[in-house]
Structures are given as C-alpha cells and as structure tokens.
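Before the break, one more example. Copy the sequence into your notebook; we will annotate it together after we see the structure.
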Amino acid sequence: MTFPRLISKFDISPVMKILIIKLSSIGDVIHTLPVLSAIRRALPKAEIDWVVEKKSAEILRNNPLINRLIEVDTKALRKKDGFGKNLSFAGESLRQLRSTKYDVTLDFQGLFKSAAISKLARAKHRIGFAKEHLREPGSRFLLNETFSVEAKTNVIVKNLLLAEKALKIPVPRENFEFPVFTDEKHRAEAAEIISRAGGKFAILNPATTWITKLWSAEKYGQLADKLWKENNLVSIVTTAPSEKTLANRVLNSSKSGKIISVTPSLKGFYELAKHAEIYVGGDTGPTFLAVAANCPVVGIFGPTEWWRNGSPNPDDICVERVDIGCRTNCHRRTCSNWICLDIETETVFRAVQRRLESRKSKVKSQKSEDTDLRLSTLDFRP
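Here is what the structure looks like once it is written out:
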C-alpha cells in the first residue's frame, strides 16, 4: 500500500487554481473563512473555488473572494425518495468539479467523502491533514500530501496552518478575517428585528444540533430576566424555524416579558449580531457567526472544548464545568450522565457581566486613543 507523502514541494503560481473542500457544518465553514481571506490576500490572481454541502452554502453565496461555489448534497444520494433528481444534481456537481483542472485541492474536512471529492477533482496535489487530525483516518489514502500541525490547536489556526504549509503563504495568528458578504435585504431584515426590540439588546441562542450541547431553555429565560433587570437589555431569542418549540420554552420561562423570538436567515443573523451588546449560546453555528460579526460572546460548552472550537477573541468567555473529569475528549451526542451542562443561571450571568465590562473598557480605551490621535494631529496656530 502506498502512503501519502508528508511534504511535497511544488511551484506556487500566482494564477494557480485552488479548490477548498469544507463541506459542513455551518460553524466549520465559518472556521475556514480566514483561510479564504489569507489565500486571496497572498494570491490575488488565483482561481479559488469552494465545495460545500448545499445546506451549509448560504454563508458562502455571493462571496466575491470565491470564483465558483460548487454545492453538493451527499446525504441526498443515500435517500431513496427523489433518487433520480438527487443523482442529476450530483452529476451536475461532478461536471463542475471536473470542468477545471485544479493545481491543488485543500481538504479541511478530513472525511472519506471530502477526500473522494478531492480525488474526483483530479488535482495533481491533493492536500489534507495527517492521520492524527482526521475523524476518518483512512481518508488520507485518497490524498497524496498530508501535513501535521501542533496538537491542541484552535480549529481556525489549524486550518490556517494547513494553508500555510501547503501553499507557502503567510497566515495570521490573531485578528482573523471572516469574509461574510451581505446585502441590503439582510441589513433590512436585521433592522426590522432591532426595531421590534426597541432598544439595546442581547442575543440568546438556545439551540444546537446535539442534545448534549443544550443548556436549559428555562435557564435562558431566567437569564433574559436578569439581563433586563440589571442591564436594561431586551433579549432576542434566535432559532431556526424548526426550533420554535424550544424558543417558546425560553419565552414562557421569562417573567419580565422583555424578550422576543425571531428566526432570521444566517446573513440576517450576522447583521443582527453586529449591533448586539452581547451574545450567549452553545457550541453551534450561530455562536461562530457572532464571533465573525465581532459581537461580544459568552459560550456555554459541555461535551466539546472551547480551546478547540471556541472564539479566538481572548475577551470572549466560556462557561464550562472544570470540576468533572468526564468532559475530556467526550464529544458524545447522547449521555446517561449528562452533568456537564448542569450550570446555574447565576454563573452564566456573572460571565455575561464580565464580558460586558470588558467591552465597555475596550470602547472607552478606543475613544481615548481616537481623542489622543485627533489632538496629536491638530494644527495649533496662534
């Protein structure tokens, strides 16, 4: 059996054709956006395409940094219903993949299906992570070049390091860019929600895709009451349309009434988060979209790790249980001893207060710096 080479040197062309493979989920796609920005900065004339699952594509659509967005639906191919239609869609995606002779594919997903897409794209250099970083280690045999990065590395940095090693380009270690592009429709959507809030607001996002990542809906309602009483903040509960039952549980647990529920589009949420005083949520896509929008974040993490998936902003705060041993490399989607998110409302509220204070301090510092700059450039004439 032939093993992938660890490193292969090849000429980096300013007009090379690059295929980014990051299929899902929404949060993982957001974690890969700084790579897109770094490649485009280093290779402005390169042709950069991106393969993504249709369900996670919204955040990437109409992005001018991407030459072509190729949407696939790998789950649909496993469904019996509508197989012919799904097969036709898959055929069109395959035609798009094979219509361009890529110089390099970058597989940030680390699964058999993503490595298979890399293989189908017929790129000379099919690059991904080394075995120890893969959820499906056997997928590396469909690649021909793999790279290792340091253990215990935030996923954003991990993705950037792969791009750095593969393409020999400079990448940032902080102050990451998340190129999300919206339009007037999304800004109007956010403006309408803000008008309903009627003042300064916090975003509470109670939903996640794993039940083991859920903090109590009732405690979110209690948190909303504290935010109104102590900070005069209206709470906006954001969920997908399919999560309305969960949102209603949060609303029904609030006694202040200073809370509303909305189901924004992803990009509408992004615009909304730009104006929020604070965001509170678990390990889920909207949390990372709030990070991308530079919104102050308090994360509530249970079976997953903040150092791996959380915000790279050192001012953001994670509330997590550090007094139990079962969280180490847990990642369980079901659990019979679900204690990691047994966290009191007051604990989360204290974290919110700390994050709001650090935000205020930074705003004051920025205003002071702006004033000093203006004074230093004034022309003091007699």
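The mean pLDDT is 89. The first strand starts at residue 17 and ends at 21. Try to locate both features in your own notes.
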